[in-house]
Amino acid sequence: MDTIAPWIILFAPLVSAVLILLFGRLSRKLSAGLAIASALIGAALSWYLFLLPGEIEAGKIVWLDFSPGLQVNIGLTLDALSKLMLVVVNTIASLVFIYSLGYMAREEGYWRYFAGLSLFLFSMLGIVLADNLIMMFIFWELVGVSSYILIGHYYSRASAAEACKQAFIVNRIGDFGFMLGILVLWLQTGTVEFAELEQRIGAFAEIPQLLALALVLVFCGTIGKSAQMPLHVWLPNSMEGPTPVSSLLHAATMVAAGVYLLARIFSILELSAVALHVIAWVGAITCFLAGLMGTQQNDIKRILAYSTISQLGYMVLAVGIASTEEVPMFHLFTHAFFKCLLFLCAGSVILGMHHEQDIWKMGGLRTKMPVTLVACAAGCLALMGFPGFSGHFSKDLIIELTAAKSAPLFWIAVGGVALTAFYTARLFLVVFLGSPRSDAARHAHESPKVMTIPLILLGLAAIFSGWPFVSHFFFHELPHPEVGFGVKAAINVALFLGLLLALGLYARGPAKDPVSIPFFANRLYLDDLYAQIVRLIQDGGATVMALLDRWVIDLAVRLLAVGARGAGFVLALFQTGNLQAYSFFFGAGVIVIIYLLLFK
Predict the structure, then answer these.
(1) What is the pLDDT of residues 424-443, one digit of tens each?
(2) What's the rounded Cα separation, in Å, for the pair 130 and 79?
(3) Measured between alpha carbons, how far is 154 from 217 in angstroms, rounded to an integer?
(4) How high does pLDDT run on average in the chain?
(5) Is the bond preceding 370 in cis, omega lying within 30 degrees of 0?
(6) For the chain, what are the domain ranges?
(7) What number of other Cβ atoms are within 10 A of residue 557's Cβ?
(8) How does strand 56-66 pair with strand 70-78?
(9) What whole-number distance in Å separates Cα of residue 13 and Cα of residue 119?
(10) Cβ contacts of 491 within 8 Å, gap of 6 or more
(11) Residue burial 186-201, b: 16+ Cβ < 10 Å; e: rest
(12) Close Cβ partners of 289 (under 8 Å, ≥ 6 residues apart)
């Protein structure tokens, strides 16, 4: 059972997706039932495997054999890291799938939606279980395909069609670097399996610059998938998909894949100080700038999207400064629950508001949606790292470790704390307090139990998942840095400054935002910058190529055609069909040849 269970976990969602595609049109209940059953089976088996001690051998199948150069296996790795990730992914997926019963009850493409969820879950589990870089990269791309399908669920809307295309293309940019990094590692070590890479990494001993290059290229995959600067732009726009999709993609699965990749190769990353330095700075810059952008967004899902980017920045920062992969995974673990909770709370609000997403058309929902109110409060406090909530334990650990490594990185991270507290409190206060600002808010209603029960369960996890008695069960080597009073004080001062500023501005339920900073509201104009780059390089290049094609290549072809046609016309004059004429032409030709031979 121990060796078969991982294969069942992996392929159950794929079987579900195939069956839904074949028979899902026949019954909505069948589509949802197959998807939920596959997720619940995976969750039960994941918890079973997690509770088993030690590493489990699941076997492998030789897929490609180019001996002695390269052998690629389909193999599963079941160590502490992958077992933890299995528990997180399958547990979150099960709750999101169940929640979707209520959220998608009256939506179009019901069977297509659950087929996409199952395919996505299969792809993500492949990343988690892969024992080599090639297998991981294949499932990495499958995650891209399935996320394209889910983000573009409402494909008839132009905005959704554009969002799924942008997500797919931007991720391919990062994935190209990831692919090059895999190639460099293989050329130098002769293997792509994680266990063998650790043993053969000494091949880079004399050329550490090449190792740094390879690892930074692999990190490009994380920059794309985990929406780090500068490839972050796709994630906020991907909110065009159904809200449960946003929760699944942005909680513990797709965007966390990049952090999981870094944790998987952490023992190799430790050998390159340059790579770690690059990773730490990208994470720190991302967590701060994403926080700035989140402070002025008005779409409830976009605010949470920028908070996801920021929190992923903290995880990436943790990879760059920590001495163990458990530190970033600890924050990934707690973040999975409270961010999944917040997105599902946003979905509950959107459904209760008849699909309104602008927070300035909400207000006064505290009396109309009490369960969502309490659950969202738990998620918001965990996100901002309020003492006693899960985010406090995991995020503060990262910042405290950063203080011992780099003062500039520490202060950037502390700035991120203040921004997180501000935009999180702003969201909660504007949505739930004050008076209703629209008819939709005045007629809002609580979500059905199939949606609120997952909120309650995730709310408990948002509170307790970071507490020591829980974290010790999942993590065994978390460091306990000894930091001075000043470090802890700086973190808490930043937290309460952001919180108090938000209370002062929004607690009375203003009718419109009293703060207007276009630079932040327009996302630092980075999206506009990219649009201009695309316009100048892609569109401009296409225009130049079109002119070249029309006035150089086409003109040359036309001239050749005209020349050939003219020569044919002249030669056709000699084709009279008259024997006397042919004899005359022959004789004239002979005379010309004799003249040339004798007199020239």
Answers:
(1) 999 999 999 989 999 999 99
(2) 11
(3) 34
(4) 91
(5) no
(6) 278-521, 534-599
(7) 10
(8) antiparallel
(9) 6
(10) 385, 396, 399, 400, 414, 417
(11) bebbebbbbeebeeeb
(12) 229, 524
